[in-house]
UniProtKB/TrEMBL annotation:
Substrate binds at S85, N134, E178, N185, Y209, Y261, V279. The lineage of its organism: Bacteria, Pseudomonadati, Pseudomonadota, Alphaproteobacteria, Hyphomicrobiales. Keywords: Acetylation, Hydrolase. Residues 355-439 form the STAS domain. This is Glutaminase. One of its GO terms (biological process) is L-glutamine catabolic process. It is an enzyme of class 3 (hydrolase). The gene is glsA. PANTHER family: GLUTAMINASE. One of its GO terms (molecular function) is glutaminase activity. Residues 1-25 are annotated as: Disordered. Residues 491-585 form the Cyclic nucleotide-binding domain.
Length: 624
């Protein structure tokens, strides 16, 4: 079943009656795979550990977890089995975390052995070939034992549980069976001790190894564990950062070269997804940034890999072209839009002189809206777009609200570019993230002088700040009036002095403190306001700002057309305004219908300008 919220029978019936698909395509594919491969009875149960021969050969489960935490499950995905050699990948990651990469590398190699997983042979410098064969896995357990002693196994079990997102148990019968028959592993362990790879207490280290192989998991657990690797070490179901991205990269590298025993080369050629198998019948496969797959079927082929699980992985990779080396990405799609502010101004309404400056100097502000995860290639393209032409826009805004992640290499390139632009006199404004954002942290950490960067959570706020800079540089804000005459109101344009005087006579002066709400969404729309001094913001109940208004502007004017308020109006600063009750205004309009016609024409012109601005933004984004 899919891990999703259940719905009522009536809703399901409605979907069936309208032809709404009841299963996502990926679930249908996994279901078809299960139906097709369950009839394949090739392979044998593992026999070198007697207890594993008790497994049910008909068991077959598939689970797939996406990096946003959605879980697909088919067949026997909840049947527990022992993790066996699948544990090696995750214990290797734990060893890297506990003792560091240098210590691990001095003890264990990373080259494919070309031999069976339980070969009693070391490299020329007496190290295990890699951590995915028994010798390397026992050495990893030894490194952990050196740090934690008797607590080593519990450390392993806790870490694997964090990968799986739940506490994991141990099959004591399998552990006892492995202990009783594990003479070949004892030979490997004593060979390692002979070359000082293991500490003195060889039996204790072996017990850690035997116990970690006997940890109980399900196909679902393996899928979550794989998805954690695919998600840069963050468990997508629990949200816990289990391991660092650096260790994830090292773990997936060794899984790619050596994870499927002596079938690893063929696996990489045919499937191309980092994976690890175990003689318990499990396979774990992690495709970075996309998915984690876990399968369980105890019938093994002659390479000791699950026969059915192998077929599932091959079918999934082939059907959806998931080979990690067959990627297709166009770096040009990383820039969603690149524009100046002509016709795309902020939500701040401007005085005529201010707007004239912005109309004349619109090319002084350049905006780049980025989309998707940023890596070395995409940021290289962005930086070339920024530097291939002379930086003729002194104010540069880069919006990251559609960027979920940036790699260290990408942040390095961007930081160098922003520094160079700053030295050339360009002011860079970054928008789309809060100060706690990981993307902001990565960029600011790699910019020599991050204090020179301006950061805003919203693109509109960044554009407004840049507009203020342009207006100030070119003579704006020098004649700002503390109070604006009603004759300057766009809503009252072309009215005669006596008509305006009559409206003033019908109005009442209102004063509001900073932060005070003047209009509330949902309340009756029974008056309109003429702002004489101060600043107000028009906001949706969600907090999204629709506009900022200054002296000489009206708000609440939609009351002429609507019966209830559709937005809040809040005083940003101390505010003085005239409030005109609509009842009084209606009486005035009956006596002076020509004045009413002028006002309605002005309102239509205001709404038309807003529509033109909105369409300009839609046209801009649809052009990319």
């Amino acid at each position: 079943m899919d891990a999703q919220t259940s719905r009522s029978p009536s809703a399901a019936s409605a979907r069936r009656s309208t032809g709404y698909p009841t299963k996502p395509p990926l679930r249908r594919f996994l279901t078809d795979c299960h139906a097709e491969f369950r009839t394949d009875h090739s392979g044998e149960l593992a026999d070198y550990i007697p207890e594993l021969q008790r497994a049910n050969p008909d068991h077959f489960g598939i689970a797939l977890v996406t990096i946003d935490g959605h879980v697909y499950e088919v067949g026997d995905s909840a049947v527990p089995f022992t993790i066996q050699s699948v544990s090696k990948a995750f214990v290797f990651a734990l060893a890297l975390e506990m003792v560091g990469e240098e210590r691990v590398a001095a003890t264990i190699g990373v080259e494919p052995s070309g031999e069976a997983f339980n070969s009693i042979r070391l490299t020329n410098d007496n190290r295990p070939f890699n951590p995915m064969v028994n010798a390397g896995a026992i050495a990893c357990s030894g490194l952990i034992y050196e740090v934690d002693g008797k607590g080593a196994f519990e450390r392993v079990r806790a870490k694997l549980g964090a990968f799986a997102g739940r506490e994991l148990g141990v099959d004591e019968a399998v552990h006892a069976s492995e202990t009783a028959t594990g003479n070949r592993n004892r030979a490997i362990a004593w060979l390692l001790r002979n070359y000082a790879v293991l500490p003195d207490d060889v039996d204790a280290v072996l017990d850690v190894y035997f116990r970690q192989c006997a940890i109980l998991v399900t196909a679902r657990d393996l899928a979550v564990m794989a998805a954690t690797l695919a998600n840069r070490g963050i468990n997508p179901v629990t949200g816990v950062q289990v391991i660092t991205p650096h260790i994830v990269a090292r773990t997936l590298s060794v899984m790619t070269s050596s994870g499927m025993y002596d079938y690893a080369g063929e696996w990489t050629y045919r499937v191309g997804i980092p994976a690890k198998s175990g003689v318990g019948g499990g396979i774990v496969a992690a495709l970075p940034s996309q998915l984690g797959l876990g399968t369980f079927s105890p019938l093994l082929d002659n390479h000791f890999n699950s026969a059915r699980g192998l077929k599932v992985c091959e079918a999934l990779s082939a059907r959806f072209d998931l080979h990690m080396l067959n990627r297709n990405a166009d770096v040009r799609t990383s820039i969603m839009a690149d524009y100046d502010i002509y016709g795309i101004s902020s939500r701040r309404s401007r005085q005529p002189r201010e707007q004239q400056i912005l109309d004349e100097r619109h090319s002084d502000i350049r905006v780049l809206e980025l989309v998707g995860a940023m890596n070395f290639g995409t940021i290289d393209y962005v930086t070339r777009r920024l530097t291939s032409e002379p930086p003729n826009a002194p104010l540069l805004i880069i919006d990251f609200r559609r960027v979920p992640d940036i790699t260290a290499a990408g942040a390095e390139l961007l930081g160098e570019t922003l520094t160079a632009l700053g030295n050339a006199g360009v002011i860079t404004i970054l928008s789309g993230f809060e100060q706690t954002s990981a993307v902001w942290a990565a960029i600011s950490a790699r910019t020599p002088e991050p204090r020179r960067l301006r950061r805003f959570a919203l693109l509109d706020d960044a554009i407004e700040w840049a507009e203020d800079q342009v207006i100030y540089r070119f003579g704006g804000f020098t004649d700002v009036k503390e109070s604006a005459h009603l004759g300057e109101q766009a809503l009252l344009g072309e009215l005669e002095a006596d008509e305006i005087a009559a409206i003033i006579k019908l109005s009442t002066t209102r004063n509001y403190g900073a932060g005070q709400r003047i209009i509330a969404a949902g309340e009756p729309a029974n008056s309109l306001f003429f702002l004489q001094s101060g600043m107000v913001s028009v906001k949706l109940p969600s907090g999204v700002r629709l506009a900022s208004l200054g002296p000489g502007m009206a708000f609440g004017e939609m009351a002429i057309l609507e019966q209830s308020r559709s937005a809040d109006v809040v005083a940003d600063t101390p505010v003085s305004c005239l409030e005109l009750p609509l009842d009084s205004f209606a009486d005035y309009r009956r006596v002076h219908p020509e004045t009413s016609l002028k006002i309605m024409r002005n309102l239509a012109a205001i709404l038309a300008r807003r529509l033109v601005a909105a369409n300009a933004k839609v046209d801009l984004l649809s052009a990319y």
